[in-house]
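Narrative summary of target 7.
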Amino acid sequence: MTTQAPLSRRTLLKAGAASAALGAPGILLAQPKPIKIGLVHPVSGGLAYSGSQGRLGCQMAIDAINAAGGIKSMGGAKLEAALADSQSRPEIGVAEVERLQQDGVSAYVGCFASAIALAATQAAAKYNTPFLIDVGVSDLIVSRGLKNVFRLAPGFGKCADDAIVALGEVNKAAGGVAKTAVLVHEESEFGTGTAKLLAGKLPSINVQVAEVIKHANPTRDFSNVALRIKSLKPDLVIMSNYQNEYVLLARTLHQQKVDVAAMFSVLGGGFNYKLVKEQPQVAQHMMDFNHWFNPRDPKAIDMKKKVEATGNLFTFEVYCGWNSVMVYADALERAKSADKEKAIAALETSSWSNHFMPYGETKFVNGQNTGGRAALLQASATDIEVVWPNQFASTKAVFPRPKLS
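Modeled conformation, tokenized:
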């Protein structure tokens, strides 16, 4: 009979470890490191509502990606939100970028306001960290040669061009009733830049600019502005401002019965379901050229239901944030790495199309998605409809609007 030598303690430990590794790989095998995304939004200050909506969309996208198994090409690595509040101020946005950089973020998404985005993206460029702009319309954001910056939605240059075409077609169909306009805009890069573009383009559709009126942020009283507009008797009032001032100006003009063919805006910060819900009489027949979802896409309708189920409204900040995170996740899948240079290279060659916007295929040229397109919208007392372009329209425009009673 052969006698076996006793097993040493070291051998037993090795065998136990091997068995445990085979039987419980989730315990002993290393899990993929989470990929941190810095969400830089103004969730306090004057832009808090819009910033909070943007953060909501980003967080919902992160949760959906993780629930579906994470970044599969990276072993199921999960995305992790690193939250920042720019407090509606560019210098705080920069400070938050620097703080999150020390926390090891792989990318940023933000910033809602153009002025904040310009400063924050410049700060992130020092570290070559990818920065996805969810909302921020100034074309300076993508025209400075920063290789780390990518914007899915169109900026105010393309939006102004398309808005003029849309307004021209609607006005022509109505017999050219609108011949004059007053432009009202907020004082920062967003409002000033948009108003300047529109003022230069309106004569091309036979609409003359009667006056351009700039206002401060914040502005608490638009009574004098309303009186001035009433004295000028324009056919159109065209607005470019953020949530609070947008709603206050629209309400003041309605209260003072400023009668025009249309209250029109380009990238109007307060034109959303919140306006329709809280100020239905003010909102009715207002028109805006803005980011929107494709109302014919089942994915958009499903997303809208999910957002509303949380007690929130489906504003453009939500789905711009959602899609920005999604296009970054697509880049990670193709890069198979969160390495910044590899992620940027993957974004530069993006052909992502799993969005629910009225867009074509994503193609970034100098950081700007050339497949992005905004839409002409019109509010009723209960809803907001797409009225242009025709392939996405859910109804026809009411133009000119009925006279105020």
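The first strand starts at residue 35 and ends at 41.
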